Amino acid sequence: MDMEELRKKAIDYAEENVINVLKETFAKVYADGYSDGYKDREKDVPVDLFDGETKYVDLGLPSGTLWSLDYKKVDDKCEYLPYAKAKLLSIPTKGDWDELRKTCQWVFDIDKSFDLCKAQCVGPNGNILEFIHTGKMDLNRLSEMWEVFFWVKDEKDGNKKSAVHMYNGGKKLPGPFYKSAQTVIEDFFVGYKLPIRLVRK
Fold it and tell me: If DSSP states are collapsed to H, E and C, what string results for 146-165?
């Protein structure tokens, strides 16, 4: 067999098999890429999930509930609403708050004047959610500015509804440490205007 004949046989063989070889090659590339992408996705924990208006944090809660990264704002300022308006939004239930309080680890930033600067909760997946002090609005003026407030859904009758309230107990411990803040649910007059934290399920 001379070289020309060998070359023709090689070309014929290549033409017959190139499609199969390409198919196998691309299939392997696709499978490898999918596998690597899936592994990367497992490592990547989504923090900011944006729905077009509000950013949410995935804390790895058992229920899968996402909490808004910040308070509801208007023109970059915290919005304060009475309960009648707050209940129309996707505010957390008492169950949502209870899950957050019990599932996450909490860290409180208390300054030397015993004021609560902020509360942070670390989710099971390591993501962090912050609650900066906001105060509440009664008689159209802000009060208790160094404390955290936000409404939760409340089905009971009456002119008082539930809200989360975080504050420092004010007890100084030995050294530079202060008593951890209290995180409780309390009833407030429905006409008071409190900040809003949203959830997504």
Answer: CCEEEECCCCCCCCEEEEEE
- In tens, the pLDDT along 15-59 reads 666 565 445 554 454 445 444 443 444 344 455 565 567 999 999
- What residues form DSSP beta bridges with 121? 106, 129
* 7 pLDDT above the threshold of 60: yes
- Domain limits, the chain: 1-44, 49-200
> What does the block give as tokens for 179?
């008593």
Residue 134, C-beta contacts closer than 8 angstroms, at least 6 positions apart? 71, 78, 145, 147, 148, 149, 150, 195
In terms of pTM, does the model score above 0.90?
no
Q: Is 113 helix (H, G, I), strand (E, B) or coil?
A: coil
CA distances from 100 to 46, 58, 83, 189 (A): 18, 11, 21, 24
